[in-house]
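Hi support team,

I submitted a single chain yesterday and got back a structure, but I'm not sure I'm reading the token output correctly. Could someone confirm the output below corresponds to the sequence I sent? I've pasted both exactly as they appear in my results page.

Thanks,
R.
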Amino acid sequence: GCSLKRNSYYYTNTISNGICMVGNIYTSQKCFICNGKFTHIEDRKGCYCKNHPEVQANKGFIVRFGRQITKRFKVYDQAYHFLIGLRFKAVEGSLDIRDYKADKPISFRTMASLYLEYRQDEMSVSAFREIKRYLIYAINYWGDQNIKTIGYADFEDFLKIRLNEISKKDKLSYKTINNAKSALQSLFKWVHFRDRTIPIPDFPKIKYTLGYRNILDVKDQASVLNEIHRISYSFNPRIYIGILWLCTYPGIRPNEMRNLKEKHINMNGYLIIPAPKEKRYKKIAMSDEDIDLYQSVRPIGKPDMYFFRHIKGNGTAKPGNQFGKDYFYKWWKSACKNLGIEGVDLYGGTRHSTLSMLQTDLSEEEIMRHASMHSSNIALRRYIRGDYKSQINVQRILRNKREGLLIPINSRKDSTQK
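Hi R., thanks for writing in. Yes, this is the structure output for that exact sequence:
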């Protein structure tokens, strides 16, 4: 006999002579002579009437395996092969009842949807939006296919051929395709950690070269900052301060900068990043000059007000509204255009240019830990100021490099905001 463990995903088996006889085939059809029920007789490969052995059922077959698997078939041979397959998997120990449930609990659609539901609150809005886009493409491709049956060849077909068709793009970049692969890998790792019986499949390699952003040397970067000061400071000093800080604190991304609120600035000499892309606590040590510059700006807002906000009405923007996503970039482009500088975007001209400047004075590890803020020491940095001196050293180096290049600002008097 074969005993079933009903509270498990798998059947455990006690095999007699290597044979498992669990399960049977039934039919809703009745004998046309006596209206009696048909009985499955495996030796005769069919369902027959007990009273009329010559009468055989020819439709409406149902396979029942234990109490948890039921499946209908039009043809007996299909039902029989399905039953034999279940018995073989039961003997082998690989039978997973979830594979046969009507609600498809381990289909790609179900697992990807659960993954997105769990990850939504753990990720930044932009990062979640990106992985959701890739996984929606994958759901449209694999649908209710059992996630355990998706392997290397399926990924290769999807990523290298079908993704362009599904996304309706003529040719996606290899970087975008690799991002889609990363989203799928994260999903399958999550599925595996939830259920170790589902292995992590192999993925194809996507070869690509990261694009190189144009950068500026220290003199050109200072020229752009001076031009931004000239065209924007009297209008709203926060524009210049935001872009200056992007050049000075390369650990902060433009979107993180504009999301700073009054309560996140000048807290014991730090900028507190409320929702960093890295999904870990991040604080940036401020120089004394920048603390003074921040304190010089008026009017001072309430703690929950965005620091980088509009002072005057500007088109659809109202006074007090947060800067838009591309607002810093708009002023950066205007300054570059005035100076005849082409092909340098905000990210390249601030973060990447600054990190490049530091390489002659700091080691790669120091740049990663104290300037770009890449670090694996997550818990410790939440409670100590161990990196404060090193971070201040970054600002000192940058100030020395810009010595005599920037227009001197009397921060207490230069702000014209009332």
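A quick pointer for reading it: The mean pLDDT is 83. Let us know if anything else looks off.

Best,
Support desk
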